[in-house]
Amino acid sequence: MAQQHRSPWMDKDLDALADLARRFFESECAPHEARWAEQQHVDREVWVRAGELGLLCMSIPEEYGGGGGTFAHDAVVSIEQVRALAPSFGGMLHSGIISHYINSYGTEDQKQQWLPKMATGELITAIAMTEPGTGSDLQAIKTKVVKHGDNYRISGAKTFISNGLLADLVIVAAKTDPESTGVDSVSLVAVETDRPGFRRGRNLHKIGQHGQDTCELFFDDVEVPQTNLIGDTEGLGFIQLMQQLAQERLFLAIAAAASIEKAVDLTVEYTKDREAFGRPVFGFQNSQFELAECDTIKSVAWAFLDDCITKHLAGELDIPTAAKAKWWLTEQQCQVIDRCMQLFGGYGYMAEYPIARMYADARIQKVYGGTNEIMKTIIAKAL
Predict the structure, then answer these.
(1) pLDDT tens string 81-97
(2) What's the Cα-to-Cα distance from 3 to each of 6, 21, 69, 268, rounded to whole Å?
(3) Counting beta carbons within 10 angstroms of the beta carbon of residue 204, is it exposed (0 to 12), middle (13 to 18) or buried (19 or more)?
(4) pTM listed for this prediction
(5) DSSP-based three-state secondary structure for 68
(6) Dihedral sign of CA atoms 260, 266, 272, 277 in order
(7) Over the stretch 327-346, which tens digit does the pLDDT of each residue have?
(8) Counting C-beta atoms within 10 Å of the first and last residue's C-beta, which end of the chain has fewer, N or C?
(9) Rounded CA gap, 20 and 278, in Å?
(10) Of 248, 261, 290, 352, catalytic
(11) SS3 call for 192
């Protein structure tokens, strides 16, 4: 097996974290992936175990129960999850994305109320942006928030919501000014899922990522206190989303680069062990050329990603560059895994082989977090 990439932003503490995360995913997640795929969600207990090990909300301040670390800590956990072939656990969304909406824009009471329980795994979270008719067009959402005394009354439907089946708290993007189509019409409101009027729809059956719960959510005049507004002013939701989506897209790029690495490593190992026509598959020039090209893409992917992470740690990663990382790396992820899968022959199409599951899991990477077409539009606007 080839030596795994070690990023230049790593240090001894992050190396120790990588070892802890690797052991967690290899021992407490990977052995359960087949069962989780059948039930279409992970066990709730794995969230608590991750919290006990300190693997949740690592970049949230210690005063709110987090690890007091940086984006690098979350990135390390995400990389090791891919390397362990344990894709189902939704911790990256919970820790690296949703917790930062609360930490960056929430009130002190909201931070004290929700973040410590998120760090222990007691409180599982989701964010609900996409609606059945909107896709990537967040300004077109129809879920609405209407004031009702000291409360908000929320009505609407969301779909494709990761962590939706198990979530205890959902950050909902909704219109606080339903008559407007402007960017100042959207707000983020937190909804506890035990409130009357909240319903979960189907746990959606996908072509890949079978163990990751992805749900429909319905809000039938759900009432929450106005203090559940994320931020102190209505109409800031779109700006909040745009500011945080760059980090979400960087997480998708991280998963892509780590997946490229894993696919190449698995394929080199397989082609050296598998024989055809009396010699290892790796001995054929076509195999060597394919893997040479894929390995080069792997090196370029890590170099670009490491530069983006270094910039992000310094507060210098801009939105167009994050969009470049998301679209290019996820595109390469799909292409490299497809090329690697071909070298497995018929076995590559068997679900028992990791390369087959990686192939099915990869395709959504070009869609969520904003489609790759949207990423190119963002980049083009900056030219």
Answers:
(1) 999 999 999 999 999 99
(2) 9, 18, 27, 12
(3) middle
(4) 0.95
(5) coil
(6) negative
(7) 999 999 999 999 999 999 99
(8) C
(9) 42
(10) 248
(11) strand
